[in-house]
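*** Query protein ***
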Amino acid sequence: MRLHTLEVTAFGPFAGTVEIDFDELGSDGLFLLHGQTGAGKTSILDAVAFALYGTVPGARADGRRLLSDHAPAGVAPRVRLEATISGRRIVLERSPEYERPKMRGTGTVKQQAKATLTWLDGQGENLSRIPDIGDAVKGLLGMSAEQFFQVVLLPQGEFAKFLRAGSDERGKLLERLFDTTRFGDVEQWFRDRRGTGGKLLAEQQKTVDLLAAKVAAAAGIEAGADADPVEWAHRLSAEAADTRDAAAAVLERAREVDAENRRALDTAVALEQNLHRRAGALTVLDTLTASEPDRQRLRSERDAARRAVPVSVVDLDAARAVADAEAAARAARAARAPLEEHDEGRALLAEVGDVPADTDRAVIRPRCEQWSAEVARLDDLLEQHRHVATIEADLGRVAQRRRALGDDHTTRVAERAALPDRLAAAVAAVSESEQAAASLPGLVAARDRAADSLGAAVELAALGTDLERAQQRVLTLHSAFNDARDRHLDIRRRRIEGMAAELAARLTAGEPCEVCGATEHPAPAVPAPDTVTKNDEAAAQAAEQRAERALADARTAATEISGAVAVLRQRCGNVPVEDLTVRHADAVYAHDAAKALAEHLVRRRAAVDELHRLATDLDERIRRVEAELADLDRRTAVLSAEAAEVRNRITAAVGDADSLAPRRRRAAELAASATALLDARSTASHARKVAEQRSAEALAAATEAGFADLDAARAALRLGERIDEIDRVLRAADNERAVAQATLAEPAIAVLTGDETADVPGARAAVAAGAAALDRAHAAATEAARRYLDIDAYTARLEQAYAKLVPLRDEQAELADLADVVAGGGSNAKKMSLRSYVLAARLEEVAEAASERLRRMSGGRYEFVHSDAADTRGRRGGLGLDIHDEYTGVVRSTKTLSGGESFQASLALALGLADVVAAEAGGLVLDTMFIDEGFGTLDADSLDAVMGVLDELRAGGRVVGVVSHVDEMRQRIPSRLHVIRGRSGSTVQVAS
């Protein structure tokens, strides 16, 4: 992987857009990333990580705040990275989730994260979905974000902690870098199988124990099987079979005795019953013979009553006919009363007389038809009179409707005449709102520009004083630096001048001179009074360097403030704050006024549309009203003509229309009364004739039935209940006689003389004793059979369950031993789990790769030693890491190293881990890597050794970025990226 360019906008401490050309910066393979604390050196690495993976390393990812606090409101944070990964050149562009101000009103709204991936080689479809981009980057790099952060962005302080960490902490990091999931799955598989097998074994053992307990309960003994529960159960089953057979034999003998006793009882009971029945039958026959005369009188009474029944039916019909004739005669007399109230009715009554006759129909019917015809003619005239009233009501409703329509027509016409003026005013309002809406974008931009200028002017006023102080400090520090430099040069000159005396001070008699090599020293130089030493020169040089650093920092601060002032002056146009305040207020007022008018645009357009619709509706309404008025005028004329015609017709027929109803009632009453009179007289005549005929038939029926007259027949009648009672008495006597005779004729009774006796109580006592003995024998046999069946059934199930238990027990023992070994227990001598063993192998590879670099950094003194010994207090082993000291030959803890030695060891360990992870990812070549901080703990010689290792890293075209604020690194690494901290955000400057 090689980085080409990075572009960062409103990200972290960077308010504006920052561009970094890694091709130029890393042209010689090594560059320095430096700047003040908090300037944003690590944020450059965060931007690279975010572009690739959409997240940043370490705890900074938990903050979830990547938008720069220095960025102007509304600017979207963005990172753009161009890189070549696995031979493919791509452009990654990402924007994180952030809160932006609402377009309208106050508050903020969440802006979702976005990302794009563009293939610059033109092969493949460009991506815009964040999950797809993540999969593509991971597929190209071959490593996760966690691995990338540890391998490419060697983090500050992380490997020092890894170096000194215990086995557990070291194992957690290794598990994040090396995928040991499949080995963990194997461990979990063994644990699951062991747990599952244990449950199955326990369940099967529980089944065996339960069945053994059931066998013991069925046998009636306490629980507790032998070592072999199957053999023990079969022995109990055999004993139960013997007990069952003995109980069955006792039951069979008890059944035989019980049967003999019951037969003897049946014989005694039958003899006793036959003797009782014989005596009862003889008593019944004697009683029936004595009561025979009484039954004969009952038979005569019953026969006479039955002969009188047909006569009573005819006699009843004759009585009803006489009553009907009398009622009909009364009704005929009552029907005359309504006719007597009218002259025409009285004339009719005089004509027909008082007694109904056969000629009544010929006299009364013509009068009924005459009066009915008059009723029909008057009904037609009444209907026409009611129709006139309906027409007059319709004329009233038509007149009322016409008045309402006339009023509505006047109102609609006036409303239509006023519409043009309203429409013109509404159109003018719409035009005003449209103009305001069109000007709104320009007014928004003008308001925002005025607000930005005003804010810049306010901030500029505050920064002016800071700039003056910073510039004054630069002048002061520059003077101090010149003084320190002059003093250093003076001291160096004086030391050079006194160098002969310094060399002479080190001369020893007989020893060669360092300059000429002579062993004799006749006239050694004498130090002058103002001679200086090497320590004096070193102190002067250090003072000069401190003054130079202070001057550089002051110049940097002044440059930052000056740059910020220049940006602010450009933003505000160097216009006074008072003028900008007025401009901003004017811009806000113009924007708010235009916005208020624009917000009414939709409502005003709707009002214009509503007026157009109203005009159309009014025109249509006026047309419909005028048409309906014309229809009402025509209907009024037609109804008036029809009413006049009907009135003329009624006047011609009866004269005054008011007499129609009384005349119609009188004619209807006469017709109805005459019809009722005819019906009543006809009914009375017919009823009289029927009554006379029924009386003659009743007398004839009594004579034929053998009675002297109707009174004799009526005296012989009996109620049905009495006749039924007589029949029951006679039938009961006949039945009793037949039953008694049949009983005496039975063979078992016919042979009896009446002197026999039966001992039933003795036979019952014998049966009761035998039944009790049978019940006891049956209960014992049933219990013995049930116990045998239960024992036999449970024994069969116990045998099957025990056959399944044995292989489960053997398999579980083997599986438990394997699970203990895989988990680091049991016969596992190193007490390492499978996953720990894999991590230990990876750590051993890391130690070998790191030792090679550590030996070069430490001048061959140190190398890593991997230990697979078990840790203390039961913690996992295999992840120990110590240091072998070549000088002493002792292997000691990494915690005993000094600060500089710890940095060398941590850097070597990080580089070794990067090599192993890269190899794990498929041998991916990492052309670009970053090392973050730690160089300040090294002396000059150690730093030379570390720089030598870094020179080896950039061999073969690799680019190494070092993040440090150590001054000496700036002198050793010519290609530098300077991150400059400012009040309005950080910027970068490339130096090479």
Notes: The chain has a mean pLDDT of 79. The CA atoms of residues 232 and 527 lie 117 Å apart. DSSP finds 25 helices and 16 strands in the chain. The first helix runs from residue 22 to 25.
